[in-house]
Amino acid sequence: MTTVDLFHTDLGPEDAPAVLLVHGWGGDGREWSWHAEAFEDDFRVIVPDLRGHGRSPVPEKENTPVEMAHDLAVLVARLGTGPVVAVGHSMGGQVVNLMAVHHPDVVHSVIALDPAHGAPESDLAFIRPNLAAYEKGGAEEAADFIEATLAKTAPHGLRAAHVRTILGTPGHVIAQAYAGMYLDAGAVGIRPYSEQYLRLRSCPSLTVWTSEAMAAWERTTLDVPESRVEHWAATGHYLHEERPKRTSRLIRDWVQSQ
């Protein structure tokens, strides 16, 4: 496994509790800018761009959540923050949970926002053709998906920002990351595999779902005391940007309770 030296920002007091804010598929760390400014007086705030995304290097292969989790573990260890509260959205939610499983020494607890895990096996009926489309059409196909996801609920400007960001993400990264979430050997995005890996976590976790059914499912996987699952109704997938104040309160309260 080859480590990528990630582009990142590091704000706040060095001796404060450390919070790692991780973006999702086809995004970059800029989507956490509001939250980073809200936290920087009280927490040490690390905001990376995942491998293949944003301003980080772009490998030709291995642009998958497992490798992304490894990169983040190396970054946290190098920065000397101590164990972090690892917060991730969508694919980033899968990545921070993989960190908690494979690199427990650098993760104090996990917050996952509408994470990319727990998909029912029936979803493979569209996940497989989606991957074929991303392998062929790359970022343009992915941008169509993101635009449709944000068309109804997103505040003004959010859709255009995310479409622009994903169009700047290399096509092979889009396809490899998607396959790494759901279809590669060892991928944990589909429900039976999700359940196995979530039960391997030894740290407390907080998951927020915008789907009541997904929240009910994940509550059945909780084995660690202090862990919990919340459901935010009438909220779109990019909940941290649609409701930044509520998200920041959630993260702050969680960190201060640890």
UniProtKB/TrEMBL annotation:
<dbReference type="GO" id="GO:0016020">
    <property type="term" value="C:membrane"/>
</dbReference>
<dbReference type="InterPro" id="IPR050266">
    <property type="entry name" value="AB_hydrolase_sf"/>
</dbReference>
<dbReference type="InterPro" id="IPR000073">
    <property type="entry name" value="AB_hydrolase_1"/>
</dbReference>
<dbReference type="Pfam" id="PF00561">
    <property type="entry name" value="Abhydrolase_1"/>
</dbReference>
<feature type="domain" description="AB hydrolase-1">
    <location>
        <begin position="17"/>
        <end position="128"/>
    </location>
</feature>
<dbReference type="GO" id="GO:0016787">
    <property type="term" value="F:hydrolase activity"/>
</dbReference>
<dbReference type="InterPro" id="IPR029058">
    <property type="entry name" value="AB_hydrolase_fold"/>
</dbReference>
<protein>
    <submittedName>
        <fullName>Alpha/beta hydrolase</fullName>
    </submittedName>
</protein>
<keyword id="KW-0378">Hydrolase</keyword>
